[in-house]
Recover the amino acids of this structure.
């Protein structure tokens, strides 16, 4: 959430910054409502002051309480008008709050302006493998090995689910363990295990609501009709761990890693990636989250990207890093890098991680602050998040990049210790 005072004082700057993010018109509506609110507040305050003066004057003039009927009616009329205005102010403030929740974050000055075509490739690592045969997409590789089953998954639920079995299930588990070990043992993250169902306030806090309501799965409790939402990413509960807290600057940065399933309706993705595991309703992810002081948050973003890259390097998967343009940056993010892994079965790079600095946007919603060590008032932390990595897409990349002509798949050396030394997946494993 953006600060209303900042928007008011820098209205033209904010409107320009949000032109490619769909927020410029909302800024105009917000400023008009804010102007109405301040006008109404002044009228209420003036009426209350006038009412108080009149009450004191009548107490002096009519000490016995024998106030003439006409004056009583005037006072009652003023009281009624004050109540009416208070109600109007409350309604306007609720509308302002609703608009603030719909405004996207301001992009960082280093972010290129424009749509997806303006995004900039920062670097590449590794070279795509030269195959002596035509590489297959992962769904053909996995089905040929008998480790991916989309038909039975659809029978159990619906499309966009998968059943992993045998070496496929083991590979998924090995990837999770490998990523968690790397981030906790070498990168200094603290592992947390969090609820997969969260309340409305938590979803609002990280910017999932109201913006992405149609993308979410939610439950309904019989008693009280309260909704709990299935998390679309561990970013949601982990970022909110310290909601309504004031941390010490010496405690920062806090670095967390969490493994969870993620649940997304993909309501806006009709017809996209309908085959395979690229876009699923349920998928696993190892998520990285940081809380940092503003002065060092962009250093923390760069190190988070490096941490996610290290997973791909250890698995020997070619990838590239892309700095997203303003129109392609996520709702809550001020700056985002995408890591895109090479998929030979599709002949292109596909996103496998997004690492973002949300600055104070989420912290203001969740009310996470810190007390500077030099003293002074508490300030909002900056929150950062990134995939370290999306497990299913990493499995896809291994199947496609490590496939052999006979249909088998070589397991990256870094994972073999997690699979009892297994070097190759063949049918029946």
């Amino acid at each position: 959430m953006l600060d209303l005072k900042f928007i008011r004082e820098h209205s033209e700057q904010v409107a320009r910054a949000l032109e490619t993010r769909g927020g410029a018109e909302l800024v105009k509506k917000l400023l008009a409502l804010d102007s109405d609110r301040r006008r109404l507040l002044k009228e209420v305050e003036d009426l209350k002051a006038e009412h108080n003066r009149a009450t004191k004057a009548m107490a002096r003039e009519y000490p016995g309480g024998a106030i003439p009927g006409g004056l009583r009616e005037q006072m009652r009329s003023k009281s009624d008008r004050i109540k009416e205005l208070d109600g109007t102010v409350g309604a306007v403030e609720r509308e302002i709050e609703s608009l603030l929740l719909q405004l996207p974050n301001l992009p960082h000055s280093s972010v290129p302006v424009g749509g997806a075509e303006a995004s900039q490739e920062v670097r590449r690592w590794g070279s795509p493998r030269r195959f002596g045969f035509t590489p297959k997409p992962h769904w053909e590789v996995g089905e040929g090995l008998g480790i991916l089953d989309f038909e039975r998954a659809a029978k159990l639920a619906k499309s966009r689910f998968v059943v992993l079995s045998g070496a496929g299930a083991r590979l998924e588990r090995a990837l999770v363990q490998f990523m968690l070990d790397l981030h906790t043992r070498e990168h200094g993250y603290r592992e947390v295990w969090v609820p997969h169902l969260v309340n409305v306030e938590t979803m609002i806090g990280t910017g999932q609501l109201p913006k992405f309501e149609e993308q979410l799965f939610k439950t309904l409790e019989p008693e009280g009709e309260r909704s709990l939402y299935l998390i679309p990413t561990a970013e949601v509960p982990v970022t909110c761990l310290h909601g309504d807290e004031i941390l010490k600057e010496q405690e920062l940065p806090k670095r967390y890693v969490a493994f969870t399933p993620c649940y997304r309706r993909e309501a806006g993705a009709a017809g996209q990636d309908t085959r395979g595991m690229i876009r699923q309703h349920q998928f696993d992810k190892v998520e990285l989250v940081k809380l940092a002081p503003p002065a060092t948050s962009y250093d923390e973003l760069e190190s988070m990207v490096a941490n996610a890259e290290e997973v791909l390097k250890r698995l020997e998967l070619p990838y590239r890093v892309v700095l997203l343009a303003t129109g392609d940056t996520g709702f809550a993010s001020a700056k985002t890098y995408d890591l895109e892994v090479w998929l030979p079965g599709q002949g292109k790079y596909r996103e496998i991680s997004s690492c973002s600095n949300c600055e104070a946007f989420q912290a203001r919603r969740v009310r996470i602050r810190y007390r500077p060590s030099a003293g002074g008032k508490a300030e909002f932390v900056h929150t950062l998040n990134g995939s370290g990595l999306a497990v299913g897409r990493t499995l896809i990349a291994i199947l496609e990049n490590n496939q052999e002509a006979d249909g088998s798949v070589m397991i990256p050396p870094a994972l073999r210790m997690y699979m009892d030394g297994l070097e190759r997946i063949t049918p029946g494993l």
